[in-house]
Design goal:
Distance between the termini: 28 Å
Radius of gyration: 15 Å
Strand order of the largest sheet: 3-2-1-4-5
Structural class: alpha+beta
CATH topology: SH3 type barrels
Shape: elongated
Largest sheet: 5 strands, antiparallel
Number of strands: 5
CATH architecture: Roll
Number of domains: 1
Strand content: 35-45%
């Protein structure tokens, strides 16, 4: 299964077609070659394996991130339960 993680744009290099983004607290550079929309600092993008694949609004990004964080917390609880059993 593949996940596209919402990421917030920190900076844009239009010439190189890249952007620096924050994904769940991790900053990284991604390619914007697949996006035809203009991208600005503060925008939210869905990112998959280093490529922005679509632009989303802030509410959608926040909802998706809350879901990912809940899934990660559940996975962590399950890991702890396995270690304690």
């Amino acid at each position: 299964m593949c996940l596209c993680i919402p990421s917030r744009v920190l900076s844009v290099d239009e010439d190189a077609m890249t952007a620096k983004v924050d994904t769940l607290g991790v900053c990284k550079e991604i390619s914007t070659h697949l996006i035809s929309d203009s991208i600005a600092v503060g925008d939210h993008l869905l990112v998959h394996v280093g490529f922005a694949i679509s632009k989303i609004n802030q509410q959608e990004a926040e909802t998706n991130l809350a879901t990912y964080e809940a899934l990660l917390a559940e996975m962590e609880r399950e890991d702890v339960a396995v270690l304690l059993s």
